[in-house]
Amino acid sequence: MTLSATEIERFRACLLLWFDAHKRDLPWRRTRDPFAIWISEIMLQQTRVAAVIPYYERFLNRFPNFEELATAPEPELLAYWSGLGYYYRARNLQLAARRMRDAGMFPASYAEIRRLPGVGDYTAAAVASIGFNLPHAVLDGNVFRVLSRIFDDRTDIAGGHGRKHFSALAHRLLDREKPGTFNQALMELGATICLPKKPHCLLCPVSSVCRARSTGKQDVLPVKITAQKSLEEERVVFWIEDRGRVLAWQRPSTSRLMPGFWELPEPTQLPEVSTGSSWGSFRHGITFHKYRFDVIEAAAPAQLGPCKWIAIENLTAIPASTVFKKASRVVAKSRAAS
Length: 338
Hints:
The chain is an alpha+beta fold. It folds into two domains: about 5-220, Endonuclease III, domain 1 (Orthogonal Bundle), CATH 1.10.340; about 230-335, Nucleoside Triphosphate Pyrophosphohydrolase (Alpha-Beta Complex), CATH 3.90.79. About 45% of the residues lie in helices and about 15% in strands. The chain is built from 13 helices and seven strands. The chain has helices spanning about 5-20, 35-45, 50-60, 65-70, 75-80, 90-105, 110-115, 120-130, 140-150, 160-175, 180-190, 210-215, 320-335, and strands spanning about 230-240, 240, 245-250, 260-265, 275-285, 290-300, 310. Strands 2, 3, 4 and 7 form a four-stranded antiparallel β-sheet that branches. A three-stranded mixed β-sheet has the order 1-6-5. Helix 1 packs across helix 11 (about 180-190). The longest helix is centred in the N-terminal third of the chain and has 18 residues, at about 5-20. The protein is globular.
């Protein structure tokens, strides 16, 4: 279904009025600095807003501009990113910052922003519109959902055709006088009102023009045909401690996954270790994988293999993986309870 020009104007006006009154107070909304906005958008990739906030503020306090980010030692950069996951994002940030340093400026057009390492169509549109007020529509999961319901559109959002289709709809709705504010408002609507399950239609500022709402189809949209089941796996990590040190190994710089990060050993690293009791367990998820890790006490073997002793008090200063950190919390909690 389509919207008339009058309905589109009403959609824009109602959405912006609602956003002005009800938007969340998020730290990256208090600035027009494109560098800070870019950092927030990269952090928000596949990461919840609530989880990003403390990392964003801490990261910008240490790296307030692209010059500081470009010259940061990689271990320090990864330590400040540690806990956010998908560590290639941090490395891409630094690569991009070095390009900015060489150019002497932050790129000021959509095309230039899009060429930065780790930047896709969505991120380029977000930074260009919010940081430079350029008329580029964003398209993320929240926007897909809002558009599919507003237009009562059953096009599959998972395919390439769906992305092109909804991108055209997003550009049609975009308020070109206030593109940055409009994009944020549209995403905010999807994040807080037009929810995946049980959308708050009675509170929606644009329900009067929502085609799916008028036909009672809002709960079945958007259509996403391709679905992937989660894979579950149980694993063991060894906690081997001696005089305030713990045994760990570092991923090589050539590793495909989290190069340079420190990990606790598993049976792969120490196949003949003598084990003791369990400190406890924790769960950890990565994309479609769900892991249950058991933290097992073990004795230091005669041959340490790829492992080295790391001072426990230095764990916050090195790029330690999230699994490593979760395991250390399990040990600390177990000790406190005993």
